[in-house]
Every structure is written in structure tokens, then in C-alpha cells.
Amino acid sequence: MVVTYKLRTKQSADAFLQGLGGYHGTVRVSRLPDSLDAVLRFYDLSPAYLKYKKGDVVKKGMDSVDRDVRTAAVAAAVSERIFTPGYLKGRTAAEALTFSDDLYDLFSVQFSMPGEIRERGWSADSVDLSPAFSREDLVWDDFRNGAQDFLEKGPARDPLGIQVKVAAPLLVDFVRTTDEFIAGKAKDAVLRFTHAEAISPFASLLGIPEASVAAPGIARYHDHWRAERVIPLSANVQWIIYRNGEEVRVKLLLNEREVELPIGGGPYYPWKELRGYCIERLKAVQAGMQGDMVAWLKELK
Fold first, then answer.
1. CA nearest 243: which of 184, 165, 197?
2. DSSP code for 41
3. Considering the domain boundaries, does residue 55 fall inside one?
4. What is the rounded CA–CA span in Å between residue 232 and residue 221?
5. What is the DSSP track for 124-171?
């Protein structure tokens, strides 16, 4: 079981093991320093990606969304539901937007905090931020949040751009550990617990249709890519290995749904064919099965 240095990934791992019920086998937990974790924290180790994240593609895309009249309208409506007219007098549109965005972020995570709410001595239903938002407000805020995810860690304008290339170390690790398992060098499942910044580009790099369609303009990104399908809460990618004598097949799942890749033979893919497809995907982003992926990430363009 591999986790990142963030507490929430260890908590996710513990919750997953609890869900296995009566499992009494040995569990080994490993965690690399963030500066060396090319498999699960690759996005932090690539200077080219960090530059992209702060660059024009993301900024211009989000500027066009934020300048949409619906953005200011939602911010104003939320503020008017919370504050008195006297308090709002003299407040700027920028302040209203910051407040509305922060409140939406809190609204989005309130359903994941029943434990924290109980620890404070409150009942779970005592925290409800939904009166601050109309249904239309939530739809638009979800669109804006998804747009940022799409640009920063989805296919954006290029399904093999830098924001997807950075996931190569994770794909290398999947191929390597599958090879080892099939060869009998490993007998255990490999469970990796990471973040949306890893799941989304990994799904794009694999070429999963619902995760890898680019959009020339941000206004239409929702036609093909939706955060709730690619990186919902508890997002996951699974490779399940089946063996019948010498024949080995692998079934791919994205968020518990079978995946159809553009190679035929799915959803139970012959390992030889799936492995070859993965190697070709790695070649497409100038990566291979080399060992030092930290160095590769630092040199990636």
C-alpha cells in the first residue's frame, strides 16, 4: 500500500482496508518524501508543469469563464442571501466573488466532514450551506470548478500536453508492477492512494475516452469531460489481473466502470496487447521504462 505524505491519503487507505472486512493478511505501507515521489506526486516535481499551471492556457481559459456575466450574478445573489443591504453597501464585485467562491468550496466539502462535525458536538444536519445557493448557482459554480480541473489536469487543448505527460511515471509503475506480478516476482496487490492531480492525467494518458477529449474552447469542455465522472470523490483506476493457465488478461476500471480502450479486446485485454499499447502511449510523451523518473520529470518539456 503506497500513500503520499498528505494525511488524507493515509486515511483513505485505512478506510479502504476497513471495507475489505475480514482481511487478515500482511499490509505494508510505504511513503516516499514528496521530493522523490515521481509515481504519486509527479505534478510537483516537473518545473515545466508548474510553469504551465500558472501560464496563459489556464489563465486565459479561466479569465473567459470568470468574465461571464453568470459569474458575477451568482456572486451577487449569494451575498444578498447572506448579508444585509447595509453591510453590502460599498462592497466590491471582487469581494463578493471571493466570498461566494470560498463558501462554495466549503459547501462542496461539508458532506465529507460528518466526523469533524460530530467531534465539535454538533449533529450532522446542523451544518447546511445549501440555502445560500440556488440550483442554477450550483450548476454554474460546478462548471467553473470543472473548467479549472479540465485545464490544469485534464486534456485541455492537447490530450498529450504537459498536463498529461507528467503522469508517465505512474503508468510506468503500473506496467512494471504488473510485469512483476505476472512473472511471479510479486504476489501482493499494489494499492496506491493519491490525489485528483494524479488520477485525471493518468486517465487521459491511458486514452480513456471520457477522460481524454480536448476542447479548443473552454465553453464546450463539458461536452466531453466532466469532473464528476473522471475525478469524483474517491476517484480510482483499477487494473484487475485474470489468469487462465498461460493466458493473462487485465480488466480496466475507471471509478468502478469498465473501460474501453482503442485497441479492441476489451474490457478484458490480453496483457501483451495492453502492455504494448501502454508502451506506445509512453513513447508518445517521450517516456520509456527508464528507472529515474524524478530526473525525467525535471527535464520534461
1. 184
2. S
3. no
4. 17
5. GGG---GGG--HHHHHHHHHHHHHHHHHHHS-TT-TTSHHHHTTHHHH
Please tell me the predicted confidence (pLDDT) of residue 215: 94
Count of structural domains, the chain: 2
Task: Spell out a b/e string for 52-64, using b for 16 or more CB atoms within 10 Å of the CB, else e.
Answer: bbeeebbeebbee
Residue 291 in this model has a pLDDT that exceeds 80: no
Same domain, 166 and 241: yes
What sign does the dihedral 73-226-205-39 (CA atoms) show? Answer: positive
Instruction: Write the pLDDT tens digit of every residue in 38-86.
Output: 999 999 999 999 999 999 999 999 999 999 999 999 999 999 999 999 9
CA dist 199 → 125, 153, 190, 252 (Å): 31, 9, 16, 14
Region 117-131: what's the mean pLDDT? 85
Amino acid, res. 8: R
